């Protein structure tokens, strides 16, 4: 009976983690370039007793363990904006940006020019080119960004946005603000990754799917909670009856 309670609690902890992931996905339905995450769990089998005094083998007790989350890198919808500072990334690549915490990576292609003339993300982080941040003078006009990331104005080529990829993008860690960090060094993106100027990649979160998952999760949580309550009542009844016999 005690094992059943522990199994129920492990299930509830896993469901709580899944709820947090779904809530974060739903909160970023409108976030440019956001990539959803999904939870992964694994089964843990409690070691069974092996004493010879048992008449039969013990039943295996199966717990739920949080194995982490998986980054969904599927392409989000591309929306044309006509803004020359907007770029949508096609393929599994990221823009490199400079933050106070060091180099980070994003799919957010809603770019701007700050007061210093640097090309930055909508959060103000300088976007890195192959030679560092790219700056545009106030006198320059006709800014364009090519599919290969080349930034040009009436003064000519001003730099090239640095597109990077990773050997194992599942190891990227989310840091908030639509930024990712990586312990492994990035590598230049190949020809399969390119930019679509004048467009933005929308979030790849599918609200209907997430809402369905949320409803299933709520039902499962209620079922597990009811089971734990019944087991607790059964244990209390057993204790009272044993006390009456004594």
Keyword list:
246 residues; alpha+beta; 2 domains; four-stranded antiparallel beta sheet; 2 helices; 19 strands; 31% strand
Task: Compute the number of helices.
Answer: 2
Order of SSEs, N→C?
HEEEEEEEEEEEEEEEEEEEH
Radius of gyration: 26 Å
Coarse shape: elongated
| Spatial gap, N to C terminus | 21 Å
Please state roughly what percent of the residues sit in beta strands, choosing from under 5%, 5-15%, 15-25%, 25-35%, 35-45% or over 45%: 25-35%
Structurally, how many domains make up the residues? 2
- Neighbour order of strands in the largest sheet: 6-5-14-17
Number of strands: 19
Going by helix content, strand content and strand pairing, the class is: alpha+beta
Tell me roughly what share of residues is in helical segments. Answer: 25-40%
What is the overall pLDDT average? 86
Largest sheet: 4 strands, antiparallel
- Poorly predicted regions: none
Domain Flagellar basal body rod protein N-terminal: 7-35
Pfam families: Flg_bb_rod, Flg_bbr_C, LlgE_F_G_D1
Domain Flagellar hook protein FlgE/F/G-like D1: 88-152
Domain Flagellar basal-body/hook protein C-terminal: 197-240
């Amino acid at each position: 009976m005690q094992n059943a309670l522990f199994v129920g609690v492990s299930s509830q902890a896993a469901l709580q983690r899944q709820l947090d992931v779904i809530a974060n996905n739903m909160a970023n339905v409108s976030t440019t370039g956001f990539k959803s995450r999904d939870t992964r769990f694994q089964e843990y089998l409690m070691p069974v007793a092996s004493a010879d005094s048992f008449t039969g083998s013990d039943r295996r007790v199966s717990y739920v363990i949080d194995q982490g989350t998986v980054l969904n890198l599927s392409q989000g919808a591309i929306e044309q904006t006509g803004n020359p500072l907007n770029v949508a990334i096609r393929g599994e690549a990221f823009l490199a940006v400079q933050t106070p915490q060091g180099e980070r990576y994003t799919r957010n292609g809603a770019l701007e020019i700050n007061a210093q003339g640097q090309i930055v993300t909508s959060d103000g982080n300088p976007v890195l080119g192959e030679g560092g941040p790219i700056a545009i003078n106030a006198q320059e006009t006709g800014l364009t960004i090519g599919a290969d990331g080349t930034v040009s104005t009436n003064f000519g080529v001003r730099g090239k946005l640095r597109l990077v990829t990773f050997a194992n993008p599942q190891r990227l860690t989310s840091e908030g603000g639509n930024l990712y960090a990586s312990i492994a060094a990035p590598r230049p993106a190949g020809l399969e990754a390119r930019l679509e100027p004048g467009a933005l990649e929308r979030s790849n979160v599918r609200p209907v799917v997430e809402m369905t998952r949320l409803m299933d999760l709520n039902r499962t949580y209620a079922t597990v909670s009811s089971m734990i309550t019944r087991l607790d009542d059964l244990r209390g009844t057993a204790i009272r009856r044993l006390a009456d016999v004594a």
